[in-house]
Amino acid sequence: xxxxxxxxxxxxxxxxxxxxxxxxxxxxxxxxxxxxxxxxxxxxxxxxxxxxxxxxxxxxxxxxxxxxxxxxxxxxxxxxxxxxxxxxxxxxxxxxxxxxxxxxxxxxxxxxxxxxxxxxxxxxxxxxxxxxxxxxxxxxxxxxxxxxxxxxxxxxxxxxxxxxxxxxxxxxxxxxxxxxxxxxxxxxxxxxxxxxxxxxxxxxxxxxxxxxxxxxxxxxxxxxxxxxxxxxxxxxxxxxxxxxxxxxxxxxxxxxxx
Amino acid sequence: xxxxxxxxxxxxxxxxxxxxxxxxxxxxxxxxxxxxxxxxxxxxxxxxxxxxxxxxxxxxxxxxxxxxxxxxxxxxxxxxxxxxxxxxxxxxxxxxxxxxxxxxxxxxxxxxxxxxxxxxxxxxxxxxxxxxxxxxxxxxxxxxxxxxxxxxxxxxxxxxxxxxxxxxxxxxxxxxxxxxxxxxxxxxxxxxxxxxxxxxxxxxxxxxxxxxxxxxxxxxxxxxxxxxxxxxxxxxxxxxxxxxxxxxxxxxxxxxxx
Lengths: 258, 258
Ligand SMILES: Nc1ncnc2c1ncn2[C@@H]1O[C@H](COP(=O)(O)OP(=O)(O)OP(=O)(O)O)[C@@H](O)[C@H]1O
Ligand SMILES: Nc1ncnc2c1ncn2[C@@H]1O[C@H](COP(=O)(O)OP(=O)(O)OP(=O)(O)O)[C@@H](O)[C@H]1O
Ligand SMILES: [Mg+2]
Ligand SMILES: [Mg+2]
Known about the structure:
By secondary structure, the first copy, chain A, is an alpha/beta fold. Helix content of chain A is 44%, strand content 14%. Chain A has 11 helices and 7 strands. The first copy, chain A, has helices spanning 16-29, 44-48, 61-66, 93-101, 109-117, 134-142, 154-173, 193-206, 219-223, 231-234, 239-257, and strands spanning 3-7, 34-38, 77-78, 84-87, 123-127, 145-151, 179-186. In chain A, helix 7 links the parallel strand 6 and strand 7. Chain A is globular, with a radius of gyration of 17 Å. The mean pLDDT of chain A is 95. At the A-B interface, helix 2, helix 4, helix 7 and helix 9 of A face helix 2, helix 4, helix 7 and helix 9 of B. One adenosine-5'-triphosphate sits between chains A (12-18, 40, 44, 130, 186-187, 215, 217-218, 221-222, 225, 240) and B (11-13, 130, 153, 155). The site of one magnesium ion has 5 residues of chain B, from helix 1.
């Protein structure tokens, strides 16, 4: 029975997609069977694993959301990493938010598809867009837990109250089991006072839910997506790859402790 | 007759809010009368100028969008910078996108308010959220031109096609005069190959619409918002402040050349 995890923070550019791809790829390297689900109309997760320029008529997660998805084909495809799969997105997803608003069970559209996939994977990671709209809501309703990436800066810290508020509302009405699995500090430059101050505030607020693994700012993480590869395939000796491999180890240790 | 400029890029975390605040503040320092309009439910622009924790009942841009805004009070307030004003946002704006979808003229709601303000300012800058939904659409319809901030990384480059496509659609149906005023490279680290490669591609694509001023990565720009101040008030000698003052000079030179 696979565990479903949304990677979410409505603050933009905090490393959601980079975390989803590289944590998932590191777990696949550790012989887990992992599925990535791209719920961002930007399609960065899909291109980050080199699956963006496919046939125009190829099906995507959009088709699962709009059609009656309790039966029928689910367009999951392989990636370059053994054991890592992706349910891709493309620009069609931009229109989904308005189209779904008029559909029945509009918050449960993705869950219907995810529940049919759950038993085929150890872990399913869902990448979300930088907003608290219907696409992110669908991801939160379909998930067992949430990983919150955040850079140690003021605007990201300020946005946490909104995110926690949204998670509480989803817990109370749509998905009672949803919980914050972990908070991950990304793009970290420990030399700055700002990073040290914000990190202190995050640890006070979230306690031991903050991963001890911290992802440093590392240009290899910015370069890897342009080659359509997770960083462990692009440059496994880089600080970025080492950090995500360490995160995967911590993630597995915490899972066993549960 | 003031010029209205949207600061927009659906890619998250590329420096939209930082650019809107610091370019506007630099122009106010040059004796221009400038209005900031916050159309992002995160309210980062509002907190970045120190106006977030106001009275819960205080009116915001939300009230202008939802009410019939051809008459009545517009809640513009002063900032700590002489000549710089702000039409603030708060979390209520999150609901506006769904509420406006059902209203008449839903893309023109902001324009009705902006057109009543235009003659009181030299420049009006509108900050937008990291999406291409109804809030961003309202900002593009209300504007004469768009400034596109972008960090020299792969995902930001990839998103440009979507942004340019949206601008073309807005030009052809809702706002024929809308044009890209300039593309600004932000958070720039010229030592990396990635930045050099992406910068070359941006200049090929946009030609002389790319500002020659480049904003470097500078921690003072990350610190200033936690003090509720534009960087020219927080640390005017920093590289970040110097860069935005240089951008303001280039902006004014280009305006005169038009
Ligand atoms: N640790 C890191 N070091 C350096 N660059 C990074 C790091 N993590 C992510 N990046 C780069 O920073 C940018 C933002 O990261 P990413 O796109 O993963 O964030 P996001 O939260 O998914 O953004 P969005 O809100 O637009 O979905 C990307 O260009 C990415 O390649
Ligand atoms: N040149 C810079 N150097 C260092 N930090 C910067 C720079 N520009 C912006 N920042 C910081 O980077 C983060 C992202 O910038 P900002 O919030 O302005 O981007 P945005 O595009 O408005 O994000 P969003 O998509 O969430 O609205 C912020 O924490 C900001 O303080
Ligand atoms: Mg992303
Ligand atoms: Mg912003």
